[in-house]
Amino acid sequence: MKQYNTRAIMASLLICGFVGMFSETALNIAISNLMDVFQISAATAQWLTTGFLLTLGILMPMTGLLLQWLTTRQLFIVSLASSIVGTLIAALALKFEMLMVARVLQAAGMGLLIPLMFNTILVVYPPEQRGAAMGFVGLVIMFAPATGPTVAGLLIEYLTWHYIFWLSLPFLVIGLLIGLKYLDNVTEVTRPRIDPLSIILSTIGFGGVVFGFSKAGEGEGGWTSVVVLTSIVIGLIALVLFTLRQMLMREPMLNLRVFKYPMFIVGLLLVLSCMMIILSSMIILPMYLQNGMKLSAFTTGLMMLPGSALNGILSPRMGRLFDKYGPKWLVIPGLFLVAVILWFFSSISVASSVAFIVALHIGLMIGISMVWMPAQTNGLNQLPPELYPHGTAVMNTLQQVAGAIGTAIAISILTSGMEKYLIKSSVPSEPVEMANAMMFGSQNVFVFAMTVTLIGLAVAFFIRRVNIKHAPMNSMH
Which H or E run contains 415? Predict the structure, then answer.
């Protein structure tokens, strides 16, 4: 068995992953600031987020193929070059168009890095240590987006939004240098045939669905708008054709044989429900705190920090518990906890204390940390090594899609709830009534998130620990 410097490899991947995830959410806090600076509408500014998600949705399905075409080091260098150039352009951006190009480059870097990170872990760690390693990825995936708004709130208050990117740049360069020194080529380059039609169908399919749902979530015309319906329908048709084509090909771009493995499916469903719960509550809670309870962006960021920090810190620990006891004893209690917390959330009011909301948020994030990584690791563990790239590509792609869908549904539930409330109100334009409407809409979103959790809980009863029989990759050479 080949020895890898796993610490250095993990360090470089985690630093870069952290910075990528951090800048993704840090910019969200700056959106209203950017609308003033660039004189753009909310719908235009929203493109900074939509464009980012769209790039991820289009790139992720191709990573299975790219992981077989490029060596680990080549893919790492391409992903970081894209991130670094994007971050530099963003830091220097004088016009909205410049910032938009920068976001697409950053997203491309992230879209390649995340699957590379999962795939590298599956190859360099033996199965009995994967839980802990995946836990560190969990730390990055949860903790970085959580620190984003808090740090960005501070930077915007005292400096300018450009510093979000100036701050990220040196870390990306450090990550690149560590990676260049220690990252080995861990995957085999098999160079499967590239099928242009698969790439086109996947791009239209995943792109159309993510774009349609993102648009629906912006609330202009919502679900009935022609653009939304057309892009979702075209996207779904393309996805059906893409799926059929993959099943008929000898060397598919995205190998759907991963769906033959029952624990992979269970893990995937649990990860997708987590993604929808997190995104629907993560988007609504800050809006509620700022518009309903009239707190500043910085205070809101601080309130959400303890829960997310704890989730990140607990992730590696949950991974170790998973390595020791398997997924069942973490996942089922975790989802039960999340369901109870969301039930409490569905009755928060303008009178709820800050401490109560912070405590609920902490509970929610602890519950999620018990579910996410154990379910994901257990699911990927069942795949044979040659399906690792495809398994990670499927999981990461569908997470993006679930994220877009969850966000869109959450925002439409919020707006329709607010409208329902204000129609009945005698003084709908009063600030107090607006805050109450926000509360009423938010409560409905938490009920939706609770429903998703209960479905996840039903799925969780089928989870079994995977016993891994296949030999490690390296002993084959």
Answer: helix 388-424
